[in-house]
Amino acid sequence: MKEVLVVYYSQTGQLFDIVGNIASAMKDKDINITYLEIVPKNAYKFPWKKDAFFDVFPESFLQIPIPLKESDPEIFNKKYDLIILGYQVWYLSPSIPINSFLKSENAKKLLNNTPVITVIGCRNMWIQAQEKVKNLLISCNAKLVGNIALVDRHINHISVLTITHWMFKGKKDRFLGFFPKPGVSDKDINNVVVFVPSVKEALRKNNFMDLQKKIVKLGAVKIKPFLILADKRANLLFSKWANLIYKKGEAGNPKRKKALILFNYYLLFAIWVIAPIVFIVFLVTYIFMYKKIIREKKYYSSVDTKNN
Ligand SMILES: Cc1cc2nc3c(=O)[nH]c(=O)nc-3n(C[C@H](O)[C@H](O)[C@H](O)COP(=O)(O)O)c2cc1C
After folding, report:
1. CA dist., res. 154 & res. 159, Å (int)
2. What's the pLDDT tens digit per position in 174-199?
3. Structural domains of the chain in order of their starting residue, each with its CATH number
4. Atom 9 in ligand 1: which residue has the minimum CA distance?
5. Residue pair 96/61 in contact by the 8 Å Cβ criterion
6. Which residues cross the membrane (predicted)?
7. Ligand 1: which of 62, 88, 192 to mutate, judged by most atoms within 8 Å of the beta carbon?
8. What is the pLDDT of residues 129-153, one digit of tens each?
């Protein structure tokens, strides 16, 4: 019998639908599935209030953990043949609940020497978050063997508008009645099962060596070169903002509130003014950057780390 653990956190249910589809397709007479839902002690409310949405920025980006509710201790007494780790991105980083889990003693125990497949469901900016998750997995002595990243496939600015509508109104429906639906499409959520036969085969053979290459061919990860650049740049700038705001004190502190309002305006400016300029620069320099782009696409599609 092969034991598979599915670890996830999901506010709207999108990520749960994704990992749930994978798990249902994996279940077999020789494959047993266990779920571990990550639950923060103080739940993040959904839909988001604008203040709360911005208030999680410094702690998300600086990867500061929060207390989690205790889970069934039985889960931690088993050794798993594979762990599927479903996570979403908050501010270019793994969401606070998932970061908190990965930094916990429970995660160290569960993940030690265990193959892990990460499953991401986000808007579209996940590349640097995955680098952060790779580091967290290394600190748990886990072996990253696969990555599936599902995103909103619409153009960047459309997805910004539609996800804002979803996060603040709470409904995954069409903004103003005519924009495309936000987030990962129903089609992609249902199609995620196409990766399962390769995962099962690797699990049964206990050999995950070529798994990522196989599932990338099936479309598990699609790297948009502009987003590599945008993600890196945004990480540099977010780092400055996050440290500055964090120093102002805890949630509710008036100085922090003021800094968060400034950050809100800055974010709008970055998305609607800076990003299009960076995009033009990207297009103009594309030909000179071609080799680097090909190298980076290969690296970010893989489960390699910078050190190997
Ligand atoms: C506070 C917050 C920050 C987010 N930041 C990002 C981001 O930086 N990049 C991205 O691609 N998606 C981002 N998202 C979208 C989430 O990754 C995710 O798709 C969405 O919250 C739905 O996830 P869930 O219902 O499964 O929890 C953010 C969402 C929230 C709530």
Report:
1. 6
2. 999 999 999 999 999 999 999 999 99
3. 2-225 (3.40.50.360)
4. 125
5. no
6. 265-289
7. 88
8. 999 999 999 999 999 999 999 999 9
